[in-house]
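Note to self: keep these together.
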Amino acid sequence: MKITDIKTFNVFTYRTNFVFVKVETDVGVSGIGEGTLEYKEHALLGAIEDIKRVLIGRDPREVERIGHELYRDSYWRVGPVLQSAISAIDIALWDIKAKLCNVPVYEMLGGKVRDSVRMYANVWFAGAKTPEEFAAAAKATVAKGVTALKWDPFGSAYMYMDNASLRKSLEVVEAVRGAVGPDIDLLIEGHGRFDIATGIKIANELKQFNPMFFEEPTPPDSMDALAAVHKKSPVPIAGGERVYSITQFQQFLEKGCADYAQPDVSHCGGISAIRKMAAMAEPYYVAMAPHNPSGPVANAATLHLAASLNGFRILEICLTDVSWRKELTNERVVYDNGNILIPEGIGLGLELNEENCMKYPFQPIDLRHYKGTLTNVRPAGQTSTYFEGI
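Structure:
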């Protein structure tokens, strides 16, 4: 059995561009993966093209061997571009392997430990600017049965916030807490914004709202900075979405960076890497809450990990997406009383619609995080959901 081709699809979805791969074989079985790398799509496509040259003719069933050799032979190794390319390939190879065995991917990973996983909603706030708008959006989302909400209330802040700016951000958090009551979990996103002193100050201010966690309070360049905030924070800390290797993850754990680890299946080395990271996190009693804001293939891969990992605590889900997301695959995300059901199809349980993917070609998107436009993540007037049961 040999790999015969690797196709790529770069699909515009307003907030970003989804990058999918399809690995084809000489026996007619194919697998799909995703390496969506916000704002570095062309570099990612180039890395996949280099990998393609190496992988044509290889046996796709050798998932561990291929992943190890791609990492070993890159020379420069760690980095988001290389690791996102390897991630996309790794997901596709697991999809092929499970299809050949006629089972879901989670069966290849040791079988299910749960039938559903609790979810928290991201992108429930599209277009909101004021505390009142955030509160109304939160109340409407919770009315659908959602039990946990994540968002970034910090506008265009970077490194530091003066008291007046911080007060405005805290008014947003206060409005949301008031709208949804004490039983809904609030997860406050930092997007790597703050220096140590400001991160600690904000963590102390957030305590009054009883958040589930404060995510990525410091820039990802320094694990020591994140660990310093964690050490003095009165609320749980989450981080790790920009950890790209097993070695980095070991350092993340040893330094005591966070209570929740958030590696992304699209960036850290794929399904293979997150399995290893979960095993590493287990004796530290650090919960796994993988970063998962991207497309349908990454979501499916993360759900199969959720099915098979004891330490998987909660799943990130973008509550809304562009209306054409439903055209790209046969994705079926089923929501039930605060949880997402584990998919039961063969492999990832997902197939690409190649023709529809090509209907939405790449468009360049700039980072919104520090420009005060972070909630502009959907086309005006469009808040399409792709869930069943919500």
